[in-house]
Amino acid sequence: MAQCSFCGAPLRHTFVDLGMSPLCETYLVAEQLNQMEPFYPLRVWVCARCFLVQAEKYVSPESIFAEYAYFSSYSDSWLAHARTYVELISARLGLGPGSRVIELGSNDGYLLQYFIAKGIPVLGIDPARNVTEMALARGVPTLTKLFGRETASDLVTTGTQADLVCGANVLAQVADVNDFVAGIKLLLKPGGTVTIEFPHLMRLMAETQFDTIYHEHFSYFSFLSVEAIFSAHGLRLFDVDELATHGGSLRIYASHAGDARPVEERAVRLRKRELAAGFGRLETYTSFSEQVHQAKRRLLEFLIGARRQGKRIAGYGAPGKGNTLLNYCGIRTDFLEYTVDRNPYKQGKFLPGTHIPIFAPQRIFETRPDYVLILPWNLKDEIMEQLSYIRSWGAQFIVPIPDVKVYS
Ligand SMILES: [Zn+2]
Fold this sequence. Notes:
seven-stranded mixed sheet; six-stranded mixed sheet; binds zinc ion
């Protein structure tokens, strides 16, 4: 029986079971379409002792992250978010040429480039060589390593510690959360600050964002569960921002346990809200499955109705979350003729499992579908703006989450 990755208790309670699914970032080339494709169970558990929501580890992290198709720099709104964060945190902590910022899961250097522009020394750490090569090419010092105690100790030995350890959308992807947070503790200078952003479980559940569940995401955090994990490693949370990114994220601020900075009211209030919403009770988590089943039925009802009327539907985007949605709902080219993506790395390839082809965005203009299904719904405003021309032939946007909604 699987055990909780934080507290070690046996996992007996299902949070949601999304059936068998391929790795959602494994885009296929044409020659692979006639070959066998590995599918793994996509089942998420909740620990009855500590309430950490987590996937069983069916796939080794090395096989997932050796090559990562997500280049952070391809999203304008994500870049803007990164730039705003750098301004805010540099001012708040008084960072300058004598400071050091270390980012965990630094991807292609999309964030650290803004610290460099301000003359603040940085180091990125990321396990995927194809993205770290991009970072190095743009002049962002980067280590190609999986982060944990060992990498942190090596850095400390060579005199490298951080005034700011930061990470966005990396904590959920960590297979051994204890090893990762213990590494942060080692890497942090006395008086230093940690900020970590991750999708907020409370929002995932409130808005039925089941498509943000995939094999690459091992854990799904509430403020309470992150606080418990950090506390177990001698780190305390003293502030939190609630962000709109990725369907609703938290940015937690942490320090060493003995730090003198007061705990901000926002952190106290969020903890109370989560407790009031039932995040300290098992039934809150185990009732989520039915919500997901209903969302699937409603999306399929809409798509079946549209196809019956002879409407043509194209997708926009080829994000990991889209692959969970399409595979779980059984949506293939019979519903979705094709999808498009701005990332040239994905163009000409096929979505895993569903084998839906991926084209460059101009394909929408050329084929004039009746509906465009927006798969990265967290970027829907940006995408509807970019694609506003589809209205010239009367096409409409479909946003699948939190509930099927059509935008004219
Ligand atoms: Zn546990």
